[in-house]
Amino acid sequence: MSLSQTARILAIAAVFTAAPAIAANQSYSTGPYYGSARMPYLGDPFQECRGRQSELELRACLSRLHDEARYDLDYVNDRLERLASSFQDEGVRAYHEEKLRGARTTWSAYLDYHCDFEGAMLGDDNTEVGLQSLACQIMMMRIQAYRLDTLAQNIDIEIVDTPGTDGPIADVRCEQGDFREWRVRCDARGNYFAETGTGGNTLRLERSVNGGFDLVLASSVHAIDTGRSINVRVDSNPTLDFRTTPGYAGPSERGGFVIDNSPAVDTLIGQMRQGGRVAVVFYDTAGQAQVANFSLYGVTSALEHLADRGRVYRRPAR
């Protein structure tokens, strides 16, 4: 596919996919990254993959976003299945399980038919049709995952507010999850974070009290010299230089090299959402430079899971 054809796809997609994002932004306040705490990421998949000039690169980028959107949707559907199967009354439980199975089958068929139609309308050849259909599925799965998760959240809230009912049994545990190479967990205080690790090194993203995310680099094999800066680079993007946040010198209670949220951190996370790998160069206390390479496969799903659940998970009503 030529560069002009790729540009044409980007131009058409920007117009067609803008409507749901505009509508959503009118309903939710904008924030430093995803908007509000429960705002789904509704960006244009083609814009997320900008810079991929060949058809192969563009398709690979869209395929990654598609896999992550599918993973998110399956995760939420599994959560609804657990809620439906937890009704104590056998008849009520069977009724809700049947309705949920029918809803999943019907929506899946609608997704395929609608996005096949959209691809056919917007694409001039088989390549463009396939790419447009793929982008359509990414957008629709993201929106559906948000809608279903909102439903699950409302069910949870209703259960917590009205204990002792015949409804499902509330699950108030930390909703941790594994997303390819990334995982979401909660610390002892109930704060959510996303992290990945390799070779004894760990890269963690924590919800910042001022919005956005804080960045934490830790290592179990090297004592990090927090007095020196670290260099972070996502794929072929320019290298970003960071210094540890004052007051966190040495192995702080959060562990390792801590960088509070800033515009530079927001820029880095934006690059991570579109990238494949991130390389971090840091110095140990012996003055030796160390390199840690982390996969970014699954980071988008992990961040959306993190953003959707807020900073602290809901605890049982007392």
Automatic annotation (TrEMBL):
Keywords: Signal. The keyword rRNA-binding does not apply. Coiled coil: none annotated. Residues 1-23 form the signal peptide. Residues 51-149 form the Lysozyme inhibitor LprI-like N-terminal domain. This is DUF1311 domain-containing protein.
